[in-house]
Amino acid sequence: MTEVTRAADVTEQAEDAAAARSRLPDLTYTEAETDLRSAVRSVLEERATAAAVLARTETPDTYDIGLWRTLASQVGCAGLLIPEAHGGAGASFREAAVVCEEIGRAVAPVPFIGSAVIATAALLELGVADLLGQLAAGATTAALAVPFESVPMVRPEPTVRLAGPGASDQPGTYRLTGSVKGVADALPADWLIIPADGVPYGVYLVAADAEGVRRTPVTSLDMTRQLADLELDGVQARLLGAGPAAEKAVATALRAGAAMLAAEQLGLAERALDITLAYVKQRYQFARPVGSFQALKHRFADWWVAVTQARAASRYAAACLAADDPDMAVAVALAKSVCSDTAVLAGQEMIQLHGGIGFTWEHPAHLYLKRAKSSALALGTADRHRAALAALVNLPPA
Amino acid sequence: MSEADLAEGLRAQVREFLSQHDPATTERLEFVRARFDAGLAWVHYPVGLGGQGLPRIAQKVVDAEFAAAGAPTNRPERNGIGLGMAAPTILAFGDDEQRARWLKPLWTGEDIWCQLFSEPGAGSDLANLATRAVRDGDHWVVNGQKVWTSSAHIASRAMLVTRTDPDLPKHKGLTYFGVDMTSPGVEVRPLRQATGEAEFNEVFLTDVVIPDTDRIGEVGQGWQVATGTLMNERVALGAFALPREGGMIGFSAKTWREHPERRTAGLHDRLLRLWAAAEVSRLAGERLRQQLAAGQPGPEGSGAKLVYARLNQEIADLQLELLGGDGLRYSDWTMHRPDSADFYGRDSGYRYLRSKGNSIEGGTSEILRNIVAERVLGLPPEIRLDKDKPWKDLPR
Prior knowledge:
The structure holds 2 protein chains of 2 kinds. Chain A is α+β, with helices and mostly antiparallel strands. Chain A has helices spanning 7-20, 31-47, 50-56, 65-75, 93-106, 112-126, 129-137, 243-282, 294-323, 328-354, 365-377, 382-392; strands spanning 142-144, 160-163, 174-183, 191-196, 202-207, 213-217, 228-242, 284-285, 288-289. In chain A, helix 8 (243-282) runs antiparallel to helix 11 and helix 9 packs antiparallel against helix 10 (328-354). The longest helix of chain A has 40 residues, at 243-282. The model of chain A is unreliable at 1-21 (pLDDT under 50). Chain B has 3 domains: 1-73, no CATH class; 113-223, Butyryl-CoA Dehydrogenase, subunit A, domain 2 (Beta Barrel); 237-376, Butyryl-CoA Dehydrogenase, subunit A, domain 3 (Up-down Bundle). Chain B is 40% helix and 14% strand. Chain B has 11 helices and 8 strands. In chain B, helix 9 packs antiparallel against helix 10. The model of chain B has no long low-confidence stretch (mean pLDDT 93). Classes of the chains: A alpha+beta, B alpha+beta. Chains A and B meet through helix 1, helix 8, strand 9, helix 9 and helix 10 of A and helix 3, helix 4, strand 3, helix 7 and helix 8 of B.
């Protein structure tokens, strides 16, 4: 049935070209973005091999801070989103998304999203110049102290509150008490940015090694991004912002985090596909490469198609964030829902299509599955983001 | 020259053309013929053949300018196959005489083209086709049957692939023609489909005489020419992004908004999943277009077609459930013969049935998955038992 063509589409082209075309941003990669990708990839290919990443998950230092310093100083990843005036690179979420894709490809244990995206976005919103300068230099990292499963569209209920000042405190001193469970990228952080209830509700800054702070590593589903439980007992804190400005900073940071996590999921899905493809081309059973069986070929085709769709969604979200586009909320909800599903599909397919070896500890497939599933649960599940979409595009529930 | 300069220059050319050919008073055919002669038909085509050898992207400037002036059109909706598939084939494989003879009436719509490729015994395995062309001096005599031919009943010319040497392996013994559909021995019969309509035809060829001057490409080169035609089919999947909810999902979103009484939690979940998938596929289509803007169609388009077919079917299925009792009714089973394919135009029941063809026409979804697996992902090709045997010895 080759004779059918899209006559209706030809009609559109000719009759209604201008009207039918809704303006969409550039969804490809610019030359500068491709160069940045190469720079990040060459570092990760050397320093975040599958064997190295796997080995590190069984050590006490699950985050590779040495690698992070290299990415921060050599490639300039730490200050991508920070304006040049504060010592950053003055780039945009388009470039940050490319870095996330590469980190996802390597399932690299570095705090890019927690520090250079989420904490940075909050500090930018609050205008905390001194800390932005430190982060841009890559010397220190910060983490926003909210559970990793926080949903961007929902204000996280603070589990930390202002405590009364100590007996010897100067007026204007703030102290925080409470706990936050399951915070991403807090283990290697130098600074914790903490939303807390009280008068005022606000976002506060605490040194991670301050007296009264306890960070307990969590045995996490994904040990390439190990979570931490935080406990604060009358810890001295600096107020960064209060009231609606603080709420907006948290919401903005989480939305940026969700969009960049989607880019990470895209990279993960793409690399899982690459690795699995290479395997089925050289693995022989029945005297043939297993990749020559149509049952497998069709699964690969569907997987590849899913990655092309995820890429479009992820690029659109990055472009909308970069341009402060009014469609940003829709774009992020689309990207996080689609990329979460695609990453989990990729993790599952990677294991199944490798057969027995894919189910072993020594093979990295489980690292991809665990990071995929964890990131799908983080910063709003696909379902949560679709529910957000329902409100945004006027498709109310039953 | 910058893109802006190029666009401004083209706009000036169109204005100059319009000043000499008043769109309000010039007869339609006269107007479009003159537009062709002025090189403003398809500006990416060569000079002298309706174009100016410009980048493909410049065409939208010209189209927009003519549309804004309310100019008469070449009625492209009637000749989608001609414009989208025959024309690039003639340009790539035809000789100078054929280009000069065929492209102008094709563009103006005086010649509607159809495509005589598939046969009852050659669907996915197109190269197995059996329609025979036998040479007799300076012409050919053709016998066979073609099927799934849209527009055959209004077409004056057709792209035809025939077998000219049954002793060669199947891909090697084919030859391509541009056949005159008014020739004696060409019989067109409607082919009714599941929707009740006859959007397609069967075409019977009995001792049809084709002059050798209507052969496109060399004798035995038919497979390469046909492949070139089909490459254009896959990119014909819309050159512009529809607006959000511009496709089939728009009907379902509208029904959902207008009928709160039909909403259930299960339908809501399906609707949101499909809405998101449809919107993302719109973005992916735009990304593909941006990638292809300067380049040639590649196998990546197969991925877009796979998504499109699946989504259309799933959305059309959801839509019937959103309609409840109305989903039990159908508009009209009378056999009509529309001039062009219309996937959306009628009611939900029609779309439900018509979309079932989307995963068959233009390459089945199974064949497209093979194409993606082999040509995009580099997986080993299917094991072929028919590649080196003479066509006449293949089991069938």
